[in-house]
Structure formats: structure tokens, C-alpha cells
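Our collaborator T.R. sent over the components below with a one-line note: 'Predict the complex.' Nothing else. No constraints on interfaces, no templates requested, no preferences about which chain binds where. So this is a plain run: every listed entity goes in together, and whatever single assembly comes back becomes the starting point for the next discussion.
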Amino acid sequence: MVSRIWRWFVNPWVQLAICVLFATVAEIFLKLGAVATANLASAWSWTGLAGLRSGWVWWGILASLVSLFTWLAAIRKLPLTIAFPIANAVHIFVPLSCWFFLGEEILPRRWLGIALVLLGLLIVAPPAAKLEERL
Amino acid sequence: MTFFAALLILLTVSCFVAGQILLKHAMDITARETHSRRHPAPIFAAAIVAFAINFFVNIGLLQRFDLSYFFPFQGLSVIMIAFAGAWILKEKLSLRLTIGSIVIALGVILVSLS
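Returned assembly:
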């Protein structure tokens, strides 16, 4: 049972999905931390170092690291020509998360972009599925 | 946009693509069952150098331009990685995958434009 869960977990597609999920989570956490510590009057504000005072930023850094290591695990098995376009799903999840969790507005042009990325993913999906059979 | 700015944008996107190709190459070496004579560490280091150049040139560009002005150019990385993967890593690039990558790149450009 444990080995079956482990085998599922180390599957490169699962690693790629975790990578995209955590890249999205990292962006949201970093945004929350940046807003919580923003002090634009300070001369050093542009360095972003003040953000380190926020717990959100540290969670964001942790999520970024998870995203990086799962990306490495994914490309260890998957061709870059397939993994990289799929990883661009972050351009769907980040704006949608900003809209849903942060209340940010999505302009019509951005909705169109999200739709195009989704369409591109659907085009890339069959070659990815073929690869899955070979893995 | 000046010629120099265009060169810098091309440099930052190229460094990002080079970093990804190098990372993939290093991971390919670690994935091989047989012991390769090549060690992945120098390739990882080269990838980090490429990402570092990308990072700092990006900051330099941010100091001069709006993010929404040059960030959409990052969308080009999807297309460049597709071709670089096929050319350098000898990965298979079908017509379908090429079209999918171009559509995703257009989507990323539209999402990035504010």
C-alpha cells in the first residue's frame, strides 16, 4: 500500500502537477507577504528585503522550493518540449487564484490569454498522453 | 524601444531558456542507469549562472521599463524551449506540439499584458 502511494507520488506527471500547484501557492503567499510588509516610503523598499518579516513570505519561499525540486524530478523523466508547455498552466492558475482569493480583477484580454493557454494545453495533451503510455 | 533594450530582452529570455536546457541536461545525466563519465554538477552550476544573468538583467530592465511592457516577451521562452529542446536535446517535436507551444505562448503574452 505504502509502496503504491510512493510510486504514484514519484510519477513525473504527479511531480509536474505538484510543481504547478506550489508555484501558484508561492505567488499568492509572496503577494500576501509583500502587501503585509509594504512600506514604500523607505529608501530600501525596492530590495523587497522587508518582506522577510512576514511569515507569508517564508511560506512562499518554502512553496517555491517545493516547486523547484518537483520540477527537477519531473524533467528527470519528461521531455522538456512537453513538460515546459504544461508547466505554463501557472498562467491559468495564478490569475484565477488572484481573482478568487485576492479579489483582483481580470480584464477581458487576460481572460482571452487564459483561454488560449488552456487551448494550447489541450493541443499538447495527446502527445503527453502518448508519452504516458511509454513511461 | 532602443536596439540595446531589445538586445537585453533577448539576452534575458535566452538565458532563461539556456538555464532550462542545462537543468534538463543535468537531470538526464542523473537519470541514466549507467555511470556516465560526465558529472552533472558543472552543468547545474552553468544553469545557475544562466538563471542569475536572467535575474539581474531582468532587474535592470524593470528599472527602465514597465513590467507589462517587457514581461510578455517571456512568452517567447515557450517557443524557444520547444525548438531548443528538439535541436540541442534531440527531443521529438511534432507539429502538434509546436502548434500547442505557439498557442500557449500567445496565451502567456496576453495574460502578461496588463
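Summary for T.R.: Chain B has a mean pLDDT of 88.
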